Amino acid sequence: MKLLAIIFILSLPVIAKSKTGLQVMQMVDKANKGFVKETSEVKMVLRNAHGQEATREMKIKNFEISDKNNHALIEFSKPRDYKGTKLLTHQRHDNDNLQWLFLSRFKRVKQIHSGQQSGPFMGSEFSYED
Fold first, then answer.
1. Closest Cα partner for 87 from 44, 36, 34, 31?
2. What is the pLDDT of residues 29-45, one digit of tens each?
């Protein structure tokens, strides 16, 4: 998927010479149709005001369920305290996302309600809705 996007972006100057803006965007939309899944490995480094660092490593899986609904699963692998912790997000077209956090350390599932989604995520400046 990423390779397809890079190839498409690099070819935009050639495409744009003979196409209107609307036609180019329709081509982009068509290229994204049929997206099924994507997996990324991410390393997040958190630094505080004193320069101290904390690292989180995770795998993110995105699944397209329909044109209007997607699922994302984030699973932490490092550090050991967070290993096995998972966040499942049902991304809905109406922007009312449903989220559940599995805390492997406690073997417990917690639903993240819409009012909590703007709160900090795993000790970072990101929020659950990000």
1. 44
2. 776 666 567 888 989 88
| Average pLDDT of span 58-66 | 83
Q: Residue 79 to residues 25, 45, 124: CA-CA distances in angstroms?
A: 41, 11, 14
User: How far is Cα 8 from Cα 1, in angstroms, rounded to an integer?
Assistant: 11
Q: Note the pLDDT of residue 14.
A: 54
C-alpha to C-alpha distances, 2 to 5, 32, 126, nearest whole angstrom: 5, 11, 23
- Which residues, including other chains, have CB under 8 Å from residue 77's CB and lie 6 or more apart? 57, 58, 59, 83
Kindly provide the b/e burial profile for residues 52-73, where b requires at least 16 CB atoms within 10 angstroms of the residue's own CB.
Answer: eeeebbbeeebebeeeeebebb
123: left (phi over 0), alpha (psi -120 to 50) or beta: left
Distance of CA 24 to the CA centre of its chain: 25
Closest Cα partner for 96 from 74, 117, 126?
117
